[in-house]
Write a structure and sequence with these properties.
The protein is globular and about 50 Å long. It has one domain: NAD(P)-binding Rossmann-like Domain (Rossmann fold, 3-Layer(aba) Sandwich), CATH 3.40.50.720. It has a seven-stranded parallel beta sheet, with helices on both faces. It has 239 residues and is of the alpha/beta class. It contains six helices and seven strands; from the N terminus they run E-H-E-H-E-H-E-H-E-H-E-H-E.
Length: 239
């Protein structure tokens, strides 16, 4: 049976967002769907979840600033009265040779992949600490723990590595508050950005639903003693 806890999915209209939101709606009756510009997609997702007998509401916010993140958390708490699960999904990627990057490339990628997640995490923690329960799941990428060369996606790799460090730092800090903080790191996913030069074997592409199942597990009571982990959902890609 679904619980009355509230799950917030940031970037819910992106590539992975709808699958994650639909899956969490199975376990949590109340799902907050965040969007920045794609209101029509958010409305459509809300209606889809409602047809399944669950409740979802949409919330607009620009997570490019701390004020935007704080406002989003305030909106969700004000509407539902609580906030129990945070899934940080925004994660723009830009493919460009490392020696051709300019300042805006670094700033945009860091803001999307690291800063937005940090500020959302920071502002959900007070409420979770008060209720002594919380689940925070950040989205990485399958090579986030591989400290190697990433010449085509350098800012993205650096930002996701920083997000993993943030994940583990928060996990250690919040363990006494019954708050878990974990990362799910997808590999190549159907419908995502896949360079044409890559030779993909049959069965190597994952699905958004695979990522959603991992998120749902880490958001559940069953994962209460799992924290600071990086769950890679990539099959044998680059193994």
């Amino acid at each position: 049976m679904p619980t009355d806890r509230v799950a917030l999915v940031t970037g819910s209209t992106g590539h992975l967002g709808p699958a994650v939101a639909r899956r969490l709606a199975v376990d949590f009756n109340l799902v907050a769907l965040h969007y920045f510009k794609s209101r029509e997609k958010a409305e459509a997702l809300k209606e889809e979840i409602a047809r399944s007998g669950r409740r979802a509401e949409i919330f607009q916010a620009d997570l490019g600033s701390e004020d935007g993140a704080a406002d989003l958390v305030s909106q969700v708490r004000g509407h539902f009265g609580r906030l129990d699960v945070l899934v940080n999904l925004p994660g723009a990627i830009r493919t460009r040779p490392w020696d051709q990057l300019d300042r805006s490339d670094w700033e945009d990628i860091f803001r999307s992949n690291l800063e937005s997640s940090y500020f959302c995490l920071k502002h959900v923690l007070p409420g979770m600490r008060e209720q002594k329960w919380g689940r925070i799941i950040n989205i990485g990428f399958h090579l986030v723990e591989h400290l190697g060369s990433f010449p085509g996606v350098t800012p993205y790799a650096v930002a996701k590595t920083g997000l993993l460090i943030l994940t583990r730092t928060a996990a250690v800090a919040e363990v006494e508050n019954n708050i878990t903080v974990n990362m799910v790191s997808p590999g190549l996913i159907e419908g995502g950005e896949i360079p044409a030069s890559l030779k993909i074997k049959e069965g190597q592409l994952g699905r958004a639903e695979d990522v959603a199942e991992a998120v749902a597990f880490l958001a559940s009571e069953r994962a209460g003693k799992i924290t600071g982990t990086n769950l890679i959902v990539a099959g044998t890609w680059k193994m």
